[in-house]
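hey can u check if this looks right to u? its 82 residues, i copy pasted from the old doc so theres a chance i mangled smth
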Amino acid sequence: MSNPGNIVGGHKANLNNPNTSEESKQHSKDVLDNEFAGGNVEKSDGKNPQNVAGGLKATVNNPQVSQEAKDSAQERLKDMGQ
C-alpha cells in the first residue's frame, strides 16, 4: 500500500480543488472519514540515520562552518554512536 500520508494528502487536496466534481469530493470525504479517521495519520520522523550522520560529518569537516556548529554536530554524532 502507498504511504498513508500521501493518500490522505491527495484526498485533502481533492476536497479543496475547485476543478473536481462534487461526486469526487464526496468520495474523498468518505475515504478520509472511513479509512483514515477523518484524515488523521501518524507522522513518522522519516529521517534516514545514515543520511543524518553524513550531514553531521560534512558539517564537522566544512571549513566554512563555525566551531560552535562543528562542536554541536560532533556531539550529535557521539550521541548517535558514530
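DSSP finds four helices and no strands in the chain.
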